[in-house]
Request: fold
Amino acid sequence: MIYTEIAVVAVLFALILDSVFLRTRLISKKVFWVSYSIILPFQLITNWWLTSRNIVMYSDQAIIGVRIASAPAEDLLFGFALVLSTMAFWIYWGRRGIGLTK
Reply:
């Protein structure tokens, strides 16, 4: 179940990044959960498309076996970690004026 373990570590890393290192604390804000609820259906559609057509395949020994929209549940963990980390960095860098043109 290596894929499962990596997915859990990714979520833990994103949570620590958000709350400890970047201090954006997005998981405690409604705006994050609203944004995530908009992104999640598109992730499910994309996961379904890729896995139902065998474009992306997973070894049964690497996952827990629970599938959502034909993709492993672990994909939702990775998606959550990616969205949280990306949004946290966006806010962190935005507060410091990084990436803004003058």
Remarks:
- Residues 3 and 62 are 5 Å apart (CA to CA).
- The mean pLDDT is 93.
